[in-house]
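Open question from group meeting: does this chain pack into something compact, or does most of it stay loose? Before anyone orders reagents, we agreed to write out a predicted structure and look at it together. Recording both the input and the output here so the notebook holds the full record.
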Amino acid sequence: MNIKKISLLTVGDEILIGQIVDTNSAWLGEKLSALGIIPQSLISVGDNQDKITETLTLLTEQNDLVIMTGGLGPTKDDITVKSIADFLKTPLIFNEIVYERIKTIFEKLQRPLSPSHKQQCYLPEGVEILHNSMGTAPGMLFKVRQCLLVSLPGVPYEMKAIMEEEVIPKILMPALHETMLQETFVVAGKGETEIEDSLKDTIQQMPDYFSVAYLPGLGQVRLRLTARGNFASEILEKQFAGFSENVSSVLGSSLIGKGDTNLETVIGGFCNSYSLKIGTLESCTGGRVSARLASVAGASAYYTGGIIAYTNEIKNRIVGVPDNILNTYGAESEETVKSMVENGIKVLDVDVAVAISGIAGPTGGSPEKPVGTVWIAVGNSTNVETRLLKFGKKREQNITLATQAALNILRLFLLKYYVTEAEK
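Structure tokens returned:
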């Protein structure tokens, strides 16, 4: 079966009333686009059987595949199974295979099987079960005229497991006949328009079957390069490798890495490679930089720790910033963050330290230092570099941007002073 048209359907009142954010659809869209398929539509409906049936009728007439999520649990308010049975005009039949699997799960947990879980085993007649390795609710596959209908649990980790273990390898991959190559470049310190301008010549040289997409986020941009064609894969692979190398070369030091990498992972790699110890001195970010660094498995090998020096007293008494610097220049100054680094290296006993201080807002600014003013310093025992950044008036956004900037400036410092030219 050739699958070209796909739509997504999410079920649940909690999505419509804003009680939860529909992360499932975002994840599904990303996974499908990575396969070269852009969903035609995304529809959310509440826990209303008539509305679900009506929407399924519409979507299965217009698509080759419909993926719906939500409403497959054991509680009485989960009505997706009943709605599908009503839509297919088929009875619900007790499924022994699903029952035995759920019973085995509960026996291993040494917990009694509830009547609700037994009720969960009544499924529409003719269903093909999609194994759920992460829970009790099975995924379901149906053939509706010329359309496939996949129903998945709404619990994100269960939905993802069924997609990655069942739907993608067994349904989607066999249906894709084109050769498709894709690579994602993660860029920090540049906006999407700046990146696009720098890549203009490279993009103009690309054939029509190549495409570039920009996925901006706070403080970074993900650039996706895609190539699709119906000819020999080795020809496409050679072309793709050439343009991928060109993109990397143009992006230069602003390129963090490829795929799912991030700043903290790259920094950790540098530190492990050069046996470096790093530490953090934070004010306006309140520990966010530290949290990002510590989130990497094995970070204790290189991340010694940090100090949240939120007040001038802590900057002076714990970090060692002299009173005359704080009184003369203020906490949000180049002199203060430079002193935080110089003293922090000794206090934390590290090779490299990063310090950050600023005015996150929405209050606390002045004409000389408006809200969004942030100073960052990174240094070792011989070199300290500082950077002034100016953001907007939204506190949470300022903290996120400042955290990202501090990590990127730390990465660039390590790249400049520790990574050899041959390794860059």
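Observations to bring back to the group:
The domain at 274-423 is CATH 3.90.950.20 (Maf protein).
The CA atoms of residues 220 and 306 lie 24 Å apart.
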